[in-house]
C-alpha cells in the first residue's frame, strides 16, 4: 500500500512535468537525464547548442505524461486490489 501511494505521487510528478514542458513556449528541445532514481527533464530554446541532442518538446512532454499516467494506473489498480 505504501509503495502504491509513492507510485501515485511519482506518476503525478511525471504528469505535471509533462504539462510544464508542453506549456513552455521556449521549450523546443527536451533532454531527459537519468540520475540514480530520478529523471531530470531540461528544456532548451530553439537555436541552443543542445537543440539537436534531445527530443522535440512536444514528444518529450507527451512521453512524460503517458509514462506518468501508466504509473498512476498501475498504482491505482494495486490500491484497489489491496482493499479486496
Task: Write a brief structural summary.
With 84 residues, the protein is of the alpha+beta class. Helix content is 57%, strand content 19%.
Summed over residues and divided by their number, the pLDDT gives a mean of 87
Low-confidence stretches: none
Alpha-carbon distance between the two ends: 13 Å
**How much strand?**
15-25%
Verbal overview:
- The structure is a single chain.
- With 84 residues, this protein is α+β, with helices and mostly antiparallel strands.
- The protein has one domain.
- 57% of the residues lie in helices and 19% in strands.
- The protein has 2 helices and 3 strands.
- It has helices at 2-23, 57-82, and strands spanning 29-35, 38-44, 55-56.
- The chain has a 3-stranded antiparallel β-sheet.
- Strand 1 and strand 2 (38-44) form a beta hairpin.
- The radius of gyration is 15 Å and the shape is elongated.
- The model has no long low-confidence stretch (mean pLDDT 87).
Key words describing this protein structure:
84 residues, alpha+beta, three-stranded antiparallel β-sheet, 2 helices, 19% strand
What are the SSEs and their pairings?
Layout: H1 2-23, E1 29-35, E2 38-44, E3 55-56, H2 57-82
Antiparallel strand pairs: 1-2, 1-3
Helix pairs in contact: 1-2
